Each structure stands twice: as C-alpha cells, then as structure tokens.
Amino acid sequence: MQTKNETLKKSIFIIVAVLCLFPFVQPPLALLAGFILSFTIGNPFRKKTSKATKFLLQAAVVGLGFGMNFQEALEVGKTGLLFTASSIILTLLFGLLLGKIFKTEKNTSVLISSGTAICGGSAIAAMTPIVDAKEEETSISLSIIFVLNSIALFIFPVLGHLLEMTQEQFGLWAAIAIHDTSSVVGASQRYGDVALHIATTVKLERALWIIPLSLVTALFYKKSGSKISIPYFIFLYVVAMLINTYFTPIQAISPYIVWLSKRGLTLTLFLIGAGLTKEALKKIGFKPLLQGIILWVFISVLSLLVILNTGF
C-alpha cells in the first residue's frame, strides 16, 4: 500500500511531466526540471520512464521527418558526408589515444570514444555487447556522455548566437559536436527551424555509422556471436520524409505532427533528466571524465573552426 509521501511524489512527477507538453516549457527547462526532481524527490517511475524515454525519442524524431523535404535532406546529407566521416574517424582515434595516455580501462575508453564520435547513448548501447563491457563500465560511460550532453543543450545555442552563426552553420555544428540525438534536436530547435532540419538530418546520417563501427570493433574483439544494435527508427524517419515530400494530402497535417513531435521531445528531455541518479554520478572516475571532456572540447572546437572557415 502506498504511503502519502509516495503518492505525493508521484503526483508531483506527473504534474511536471504534463506541464512539459505545454509550449511555454522549453527543452532546457524540461531537462533542468528532470534533474531537480531526480535529486530531490527522486523518480518514482524509474523503470517505466526508462522504457518510455527510448520510445518517445524515436517517435519524436520520426515525427520531425514529416516537416522535411526528402530532396532537400539529400542535399544536406551530401554536403555533410565527408565532414561527418572525417570527424567520426578523427574523434575515435583521438579518443582511443587519450584512453592510452590516461590509462583508462580499455572498454570504458572505447565506449566514451564511440559515444562522443557518433550518437551518445545509442552508440554506447550498441557497442556494449560487442566489447563485452561490464555494467559499471557502461554506467560510467553513459553517465559521462549524459552529463556533457546535457551541458551542451544549454550552452550551444548561447555560443551560436554569440558567434553569430547562421542556422545552417549551427545545425551542422550541433549534429557534429553534441552527443545524443535528443540534445541535438533540442538545441537546434531553440535556434530555428532551418537549424533543426539540418541538425536532425546530419545527426541521423551520423548515427548510421554505428553499423560499420560495430562490425569493425567485432573483428578486433574477435567475437563472432556479437549482436549489432541497428537504429531502425532512422529508416522510419526517411519514410516520413518521403511521405511528406511525395504524398500531397499529408502535407495539410504535417505541421501538427511536427508540433506534437517537438512537444514529445521536450517531455523526453524531462524524462532523461529525471533518469540521472546520484549513484551514477558517484561512479564517474576522474580519468574517464577527463577523457570525455577533452574529447568533447576537441571535436566541438575543431568542427566549429572548420564550419566557420570553410563556408559551410
């Protein structure tokens, strides 16, 4: 039987979650609200929200596809393909080098490098069974990526405005330098619709690199039975773009689908914030954290310099 205290906690959590669906609550505020609740009253629905977060994020991203034109997305993809490939390879190599310098656990180093190079938690989740990482190694890597990813959601739009970046420039920068798709979309959404379209397209194109990275890693670790976790929702995102581009009747309701997707993303960020625990933060060691910070600053600054000086 629930106590009054437990009932009150659940009520507060549900009320804040519902408020995140309203337009006056912006993504960073939702994320902050999740943090505050997690560190004060806790998350009374932790197991349920963990599953809901993954589903909501994927559904929101697919919904955003209804706001994009497939032909325009192809052009964006062509423009950022070489940049994406080179930044991923460079980040991975530098991350592994940092791991050797700091003598970070091999698996932890691989997970942090993969998460920073490609798409945060999704890449870590895909790589975990391949490298046979322990629960603690995965937890540490996810916590580091999550904390830095959350910081990026707050500071990237501010830096973008200070540097007077165009929406096209910011969208590309966010997709390259921010870890998780959730914060990439959240940050670019604050910057503008054009930034949102470019960031989402490039980030999801980037996420497909999980597949070749997983195959190569499996060869190095010599685990023939390793399963590769493919982000299938990316293909649904492409289908949504195709429908919006070539099926005229859907275009009348596309703006409403996109609006609902943006609100769903804001709710997702609240749930993500509520998923960070004190225990997870305590597990973060100094060396892995330093590796994660240096690697993130490296790719952020390098990609920024390339974007600002090459006319992207």
TrEMBL record:
The GO cellular component terms are: plasma membrane
Keyword Protease (UniProt): no
UniProt superkingdom: Bacteria
Q: Mind telling me which residue stretches traverse the membrane in this protein?
A: 12-43, 80-98, 110-128, 140-163, 230-250, 256-277, 289-308
Pfam families found in the cross-reference section? Cons_hypoth698
Places the protein is found: Cell membrane
Q: How does it sit in the membrane?
A: Multi-pass membrane protein
* Keywords attached to this entry: Cell membrane, Membrane, Transmembrane, Transmembrane helix
Q: Which InterPro entries match?
A: UPF0324_pro
- Chief place of localization: membrane
Q: Which PANTHER family match?
A: INNER MEMBRANE PROTEIN YEIH-RELATED, UPF0324 MEMBRANE PROTEIN FN0533
Q: Which family does it belong to?
A: Belongs to the UPF0324 family.
Protein name, UniProt field: Conserved hypothetical integral membrane protein
Q: Which organism is it from?
A: Dysgonomonas macrotermitis
